[in-house]
Amino acid sequence: MSFISYSFLLFAAILLVIYYSIPARGQWLLLLGASYCFYAQSGIENLVFILLTTASTYIAARLIYRAQAACDRKTAKRRSRIWLWLCLGIHFGLLALCKVRFTFQNVLLPMGISFYMFQSMGYVLDVYRGSIHPERNPFKLALFVSYFPQLVQGPISKYQELAPQLLGQRCYNGKQVSFGLQRMLWGYFKKLVIADRIAVAVLALKGPEHTGLAFLVLSCFYAIQIYGDFTGGIDIAIGLSEALGITLPENFVRPFFSKNIAEYWRRWHITLGRWMKEYVFYSVSVSAPMRRLSKSARKKWPKFGKRLPVYAATFATWFCTGIWHGITPNFLLWGMLNGLVIVISEELTPLYQKFHSRFPWKSKPWYGALEMLRMFLLMNLIRIVDLFPNVGECFRRLGTVFTPASVPFLELGLGVVDYGILICGCAVMLCVSILQEKKGSVRQLLWQRAGLRYAVVLGLLLAVLLMGSYGIGYDAGNFIYNQF
Amino acid sequence: MKKVKFAVALGAAFIVLILLQMLLVPKYMLHSQEGALIGEYYDNAGSNDVIFIGDCEVYENFSPITLWEKYGITSYIRGSAQQTIWQSYYLLEETLRYETPKVVVFNVLSMKYDTPESTGSQSRREAYNRMTLDTMRWSSSKWNAIRASMTQEEKEKEALLTYIFPILRYHDRWSRLTREDLTYWFGRDTVSHNGYLMQAGIKPFQAAFQEPPLADYSFGENSWNYLEKMRCLCEKRGVQLVLIKAPSLSPVWWEQWDAQIEEYAKQHNLLYINMLDHQREIGLDWTTDTYDAGLHLNVYGAEKASAWLGKLLADKCHVPDRRDDETLAAAWSEKAARYYEQKRRLENEKN
Amino acid sequence: MDKLMGILLELNPDIDYEKETALIDAGLLDSFDIVTLVSEIDDVFGVEIPAQALTPENFNSAKALYGLIRRLQEC
Question: What pLDDT is stored for residue A192 in this prediction?
Answer without folding.
Answer: 94
